[in-house]
Amino acid sequence: GIQVEQSPPDLILQEGANSTLRCNFSDSVNNLQWFHQNPWGQLINLFYIPSGTKQNGRLSATTVATERYSLLYISSSQTTDSGVYFCAVPSGANSKLTFGKGITLSVRP
Amino acid sequence: GAGVSQSPRYKVAKRGQDVALRCDPISGHVSLFWYQQALGQGPEFLTYFQNEAQLDKSGLPSDRFFAERPEGSVSTLKIQRTQQEDSAVYLCASSFSLASYNEQFFGPGTRLTVL
After folding, report:
1. Category of B94 on φ-ψ map: left (φ > 0), alpha (ψ -120 to 50) or beta
2. Phi/psi of residue B96, nearest 5 degrees
């Protein structure tokens, strides 16, 4: 099956700093989603981005499908950005998602 | 409601008990997925439905796990004779259709603790 790798595994930032989170995947995909899992366990949809670039406030994402990676940018980080960030892609023609192991972000005041 | 809902949010079971976890998908979404998330890991696929048909149950860890969606909307994940290794968060997701390019939306999860 498809492999998904996220890096770095952990990230500690001072409030106001910028960061880049990376997601590599082993096969071509027609869907890629970024999620933020808050401290209560809820998976919040950040981006649906099979290719190209999208922006939503302080967050933006870019997927380069031909090179099999996606980047999530967080600018001017806030303590509320803390949590675990997952990327996920479908397994082949099947729509079940394969998740990376996640990136744990801690933003300190 | 506007989003995917799940109940209960928390469940504590004694080893050997049966449990039932409920998922209400977004209205109009024909596809429904169940995932299991162990502590410190990413969610892992269990099973999915298109309407009432269970099309893939390859991720169910044992025959103690059973899922149904009899009327094509609400789904129930049942775990019989729970074991400690079943302790995890169970997440439900729905999407407009089964096509792999469709975005999935997740519920808040049910945290199951087996003592």
Report:
1. beta
2. -60, -40
Distance from CA of A76 to the nearest CA of B (A): 26
Q: What count of residues does chain A have?
A: 109
Q: How many CB atoms lie within 10 A of CB B1?
A: 7
Which amino acid makes up residue B95? S
Burial class (CB in 10 A: 0-12, 13-18, 19+), B109: buried
- Burial pattern A25-54, b for ≥16 Cβ within 10 A else e, equals beeebebbbbbbbeeebbbeebbbbbeeee
Residues of A whose CB is below 8 A from B104: 33, 95, 97
B100: which chain A residues are within 8 Å (Cβ-Cβ)? Answer: 30-31, 90, 92-95
Residue with tokens 């079940």: A96
Q: Which of A97, A98, A103 to mutate to test the interface with B (most CBs of B within 10 A)?
A: A97
As averages over each run of 10 residues, the pLDDT of chain A (109 residues) reads 95 97 93 92 93 97 96 97 96 83 96
